[in-house]
Amino acid sequence: MREPGKATEKAKELIKMGVAKARLLQPLEEIEIPVIPSCLVMGGGVVGISAALNLAEQGFEVHLVEKEGELGGTLLDVYKLFTTNEEASKLLGPFVQKVKDHSKIKTHLSTKVKDVSGFIGNFDATLDEDGKESKLKVGTIIVATGAEELKP
């Protein structure tokens, strides 16, 4: 049953066949697809806010979706930050105000993403905002959801 010599010969033959096949391969044709210059950011916490501001500063249209009625995420439930002893609201306030003031950021509060379809550079998203559906066309999606504080 054990024949290492034959197994080695078979492996060598398989490698030779693979190399011979690879020599005949042609490169795939490159295609260019237009990309919609906007982004859907899911999650209105610190990471979502940071992503939205960064993209908006680069000139992209941003749709920031938050399921709760206000931006801030988990940081809304924190009084002081552990490492700096700084009040969370003092840190969060200016960022939220920047989002509200930025012309390139559209905030969707009390909203859930109901459906997403499409492909890279061209997504269709359906939002459910208090029972009212709306559709968006975006080129990219950033998922910034789900942070939880550590409970030892």
Automatic annotation (TrEMBL):
<dbReference type="InterPro" id="IPR036188">
    <property type="entry name" value="FAD/NAD-bd_sf"/>
</dbReference>
<keyword id="KW-0479">Metal-binding</keyword>
<dbReference type="GO" id="GO:0051539">
    <property type="term" value="F:4 iron, 4 sulfur cluster binding"/>
</dbReference>
<dbReference type="GO" id="GO:0016491">
    <property type="term" value="F:oxidoreductase activity"/>
</dbReference>
<dbReference type="InterPro" id="IPR023753">
    <property type="entry name" value="FAD/NAD-binding_dom"/>
</dbReference>
<keyword id="KW-0411">Iron-sulfur</keyword>
<dbReference type="Pfam" id="PF07992">
    <property type="entry name" value="Pyr_redox_2"/>
</dbReference>
<keyword id="KW-0560">Oxidoreductase</keyword>
<keyword id="KW-0004">4Fe-4S</keyword>
<dbReference type="InterPro" id="IPR039650">
    <property type="entry name" value="HdrA-like"/>
</dbReference>
<protein>
    <recommendedName>
        <fullName>FAD/NAD(P)-binding domain-containing protein</fullName>
    </recommendedName>
</protein>
<keyword id="KW-0408">Iron</keyword>
<dbReference type="GO" id="GO:0046872">
    <property type="term" value="F:metal ion binding"/>
</dbReference>
<feature type="domain" description="FAD/NAD(P)-binding">
    <location>
        <begin position="39"/>
        <end position="151"/>
    </location>
</feature>
